[in-house]
Write a structure and sequence with these properties.
Blueprint (H helix, E strand, L loop, with lengths): L2 H34 L4 H9 L4 H4 L1 H26 L6 E3 L8 E3 L3 H21 L7 H23 L7 H11 L1 H5 L6 E4 L3 E4 L3 H20 L6 H19 L3 H21 L8 H18 L3 H7 L1 H12 L9 E2 L5 E2 L8 H10 L7 H20 L1
Antiparallel strand pairs: 1-2, 3-4, 5-6
């Protein structure tokens, strides 16, 4: 074999080895994505097919870094907030415990801040390292989340039962939907079970988008009042949406959901029973609005509707009493919970009633875990 043939043989071997390694990396990316739901399927597929795209090789660290920013930012700020908020009288009563202890309120500000910083970190890396700058939809979602956060702040500062009236919340969340309306976010074509494929045209941004954001933000705010409930439900819903977005090749929707999941997990550590901090309407409106935004950007409206079925049940239960009863339970001397009235007027009341049939004493954690299970069942149905 002459020197030229040796050179060609060596080069071919080097290329084959490089491609094999790249394909292996791509396969590992797909496996990790399937397990964790944190990587766009397209990236791994491109690796397996050609194995030469440097940009895709860097995506998993970028996603991991963005999640880490969201998690750590929220964790650090919440620890500070727990000590500082009582100085400003930002505290609430823990209604499902004996003595109704006072707990720092409005921790949702920390969650939103961590979420926004994680997303901005992602956008910065994608813009300056990858040279991509087409992120108008993500910036519009950030605007919507921040506007709903402000609505929650106004309601929290005004005080429980003194704040914004329900109709005012509906009106204000309509304005929060404007960022997605003006950029015509989402896909106006939908495939419905009976009607088939329908193109809603201008009706989609002018009606369906605001209805989705108004409905999701307000309904998510209604299933609340128990330690860890709101944050945990948000983790389940947004994790499911991020996985479906990953499967569907919607990286923007996936990243928005995952960054909020990172922030919520950090917050949940402090919000779990017994809670050291409450989320307040500041978080619930923001998370609900984000879920709607992710569904719109990822063409997952039908999936979001399924995930919000428990919230729809809660709405109709409250409608029976014209929204006069609270979600809280009656606390017994041993810390166990009972129904506060004869009727079932909240999803939490329904959970207590069901649990009472299988165990003698029901505690706050039981109610939260039961509702986690219900939401997880809907999430599993969506994934399967």
């Amino acid at each position: 074999m002459n020197a030229r043939n040796k050179s060609k043989f060596g080069l071919a071997a080097m290329i084959d080895a490089k491609l094999s390694i790249a394909r292996f990396i791509g396969l590992m990316h797909l496996v990790s994505a399937s397990l964790m739901g944190t990587h766009d399927k397209e990236y791994g597929s491109i690796y397996i097919s050609c194995g030469t795209n440097r940009n895709h090789d860097a995506m998993l660290p970028v996603i991991s870094l963005s999640l880490l920013i969201s998690f750590m930012t929220t964790w650090i700020i919440v620890k500070k907030w727990i000590h500082k908020s009582p100085e400003f009288c930002l505290v609430g009563l823990d209604m499902n415990k004996l003595g109704k202890p006072r707990v720092p309120e409005m921790g949702g500000i920390c969650v939103v801040f961590g979420f926004v910083l994680g997303i901005l970190g992602y956008l910065g890396i994608m813009t300056f390292y990858f040279g991509s700058s087409k992120y108008v939809s993500i910036l519009a979602v950030i605007c919507t989340v921040l506007m709903t956060c402000i609505i929650g702040i106004i309601d929290d500062i005004s005080g429980w039962k003194i704040g914004l009236a329900q109709w005012q919340k509906f009106v204000l969340t309509f304005f929060a939907a404007l960022p997605l309306m003006v950029i015509n976010a989402g896909n106006s074509t939908m495939s419905l079970p009976i009607a088939g494929t329908i193109d809603w045209g201008v009706i989609y941004p002018l009606l369906i988008v605001p209805v989705g954001i108004i409905g999701a933000s307000n309904s998510f705010n209604m299933v609340a009042g128990y330690n860890g409930l709101e944050a945990g439900m948000g983790v389940i819903i947004l994790s499911t949406l991020s996985y479906v977005a990953f499967i569907g090749g919607k990286p923007d929707a996936m990243m928005l959901a995952l960054c909020m999941v990172g922030a919520l997990l950090a917050f949940l550590y402090f919000n779990w029973y017994p809670a050291k901090v409450f989320p307040g309407d500041t978080m619930t409106y923001s998370v609900g609005a984000l879920a709607a935004c992710v569904a719109i950007l990822g063409d997952m409206e039908k999936i979001a509707v399924i995930l919000f079925v428990p919230y729809a049940v809660d709405f109709f239960l409250q409608l029976r009493c014209k929204f006069h009863f609270e979600a809280f339970a009656r606390v017994n001397g041993d810390g166990s919970l009972d129904l506060p009235c004869h009727g079932l007027y909240h999803l939490t009341h329904l959970a207590i009633a069901v649990l009472k049939r299988v165990k003698r004493k029901v505690y706050e954690r039981d109610v939260v875990l039961f509702l986690y299970g219900i939401e997880a069942a809907f999430a599993l149905y969506v994934i399967i």
